Amino acid sequence: MSRLILLGPAHEAAGIRRDDVDGSSVSEVLANARTRYGPNFAAVLAVSTVWLNGDTATLTQPVGPSDEIAVVPPVSGG
Length: 78
Known about the structure:
By secondary structure, this protein is α+β, with helices and mostly antiparallel strands. The chain has a single domain, classed as Beta-grasp domain (Ubiquitin-like (UB roll)). 33% of the residues lie in helices and 26% in strands. It has three helices and five strands; from the N terminus they run E-H-E-H-H-E-E-E. Strands 2-1-5-3-4 form a five-stranded mixed beta sheet. Strand 3 and strand 4 (55-56) form a beta hairpin. The longest helix is centred in the middle third of the chain and has 12 residues, at 26-37. The model has no long low-confidence stretch (mean pLDDT 95).
């Protein structure tokens, strides 16, 4: 399981800030998170940046139990 960190609107949509989610790649973890948290979370995820251990992630990157995947929604304001 990888640690999933949800920021801002992603946190609000999922109702949780951190969670452990199964998956062997970034894509699998995010697919399991979509199933777990539902359509509001999926909508936020669709416009968010995803980081793996502090760097921009690709969906095919493998993940393990010590990895952190962060969902970073766009920031608005001035």
